[in-house]
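Here is one such protein, fold included:

. . .
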Amino acid sequence: MTIPVRIAITTGEPAGVGPELTAQALAREAGRWRRDAHFTVFGDRRLLTERAKQVGVDFAAWSAAAGAPTNAPVVLRDVPLGAPSVAGVLDAANGRYVLALLDAAIDGALDGTFDAIVTAPLQKSTINDAGVPFTGHTEYLAERTGTPRVVMMLCGTGERPLRVALATTHLALRDVPDALSIDGLVDTLAIVDHDLRARFGIASPRILVTGLNPHAGEHGYLGREEIDVIAPALQRAHASGIDVRGPYPADTLFQPRHLRDADCVLAMYHDQGLPVLKFATFGGGINVTLGLPIVRTSVDHGTALDLAGTGRADCGSLIAAIDTAVSMARHRRHAAAGR
């Protein structure tokens, strides 16, 4: 008998679409996941009940209260809001509430209560306005788990999904060149290679790497980062057994003939790789944090304040994030059992 994996879901910014997308996704797909996964949803019960009703979901039909039997497919962990929330209206009084959801899920994943966490979108500005310096989910997860280096990777779905990992994440563009180093890129490639094997079940990952500058530096005429940093890092990574190739010009790399046999592209900065991926997959893609001691996936979009409470937001990305979390948790479990 297969033991279901245990997935924590944080419902994110209360004024955004996270609460209603969680209700929609679980109401629509809980039956399909019933044999594979059990879910614990973190959020304010009254808020979730209200938002679920607004989008036509019967909250009681898919959620049990905390303390329900451990085999209940979906359990709600009630975390009270800091202040009443109105769909589409941000309130800094709820910034710490959002972090409380995330902290509870992280703690549960670290102590083995959960096999993976899935995060609905949050609003960085609300958390900062609450007096807590906050850059993003990725950086916060790294800090809370004591992980020195993590890698953000966005993925499409399907039989041969496009995956794009980032060498740097939420940095001003002027800071990117100084943030790149040979050691850092080697470490990043090692994380990507390891997690593609251990958490995605890819036996021999092939990774393509972009350059930093236009035309990958044009042999040094448009910048030397490719010559001085990126190429030496790829040589070291290749010598360690990683199938890595590049650096390639980013403006021509994202073509089917180049990507056909690739498992992941490593881009040098956020807006170099993600616009291409989001154009191809938006609404059905996901965000994965690699390198963590826990499994974490998320949606490929933000809080969509203009859609909150309307029922017009699409839960496809959240469903894909849950699917991937379940699959990654299974691969991780099998990898651990095989040690």
